[in-house]
Amino acid sequence: MASKHQEQRAWVRMPSGRRLDLLDPTPFDWDDSDLALGLARTYRWGGHSAWPLPLSVAQHSLTVMHVRAAACHAAGLTLAPLDALRELLHDAEEGLLGFDCVSPLKPFMGEAFKLLSQKLEAAVFLRYGLPRWTPKEHAAHKLADRLAAASEALHVTGWSATEIAQTLKIGVPPLQHDPLQPVYGGTAWEPWPPALAAQRFLAELERLKALS
């Protein structure tokens, strides 16, 4: 008789045809285009937006990478390609799941969901040869991530600066300039269509892989 685990389907089909086992993922369960498309179709802020389109995790990931690179440049340093790749892929597991859990919901998701996310993240780090964060590197990453979040809250979803500080508890001021605009053009802070977000994310992923 098959076990209960065997009877339950724990894998999902990727657009490439590969199968991702959510309970026991391996680095070979997706290809780069699967990840790019998944992140481009996974939305920040529960899909809420003051624009016609919601903001994808793919676009957010590019923003965090550029914010982190700008911070390094301001300090007279250069963000190494492998470190930039780690910034780009910091939310990769969300694209594999197709789900970015909003902060108020996270305490209710439980340990099983946390473990699932950690396994996916470990598979991502293994596939792309990413080093684990040091405490100093992780603190710098979290600052870039918070800057991106504060800026998105203001410019994309319509939170006020006071609400960002008092309700969202983000203690850094939002950026006024969009770090992606000098690179890609367009209107500052406007969410990209999924196909465009996937294309731009994939191009950056391939560029950084070649340099790492």
Count of helical stretches: 10
**Strand share of the residues?**
under 5%
Distance between the termini: 48 Å
Helix-strand topology string:
HEEHHHHHHHHH
Indicate the structural class. Answer: mainly alpha
Largest sheet: 2 strands, antiparallel
> What is the mean pLDDT?
95
**Spans where pLDDT lies below 50 across 5 or more residues:** none
Shape: globular
What Rg do the Cα atoms give?
17 Å
- The strand count comes to 2
Summarize the amount of helix as a percent range: 40-55%
Main sheet: which strands, in order across?
A: 1-2
Can you characterise this structure?
It is a single chain. This protein is mainly alpha-helical. It is 54% helix and 3% strand. The N and C termini lie far apart (48 Å).
What layout of secondary structure does this protein have?
Layout: H1 4-7, E1 11-13, E2 19-21, H2 32-40, H3 57-74, H4 81-88, H5 92-97, H6 110-127, H7 135-157, H8 161-166, H9 181-184, H10 194-211
Antiparallel strand pairs: 1-2
Helix pairs in contact: 2-10, 3-4, 3-7, 3-10, 4-10
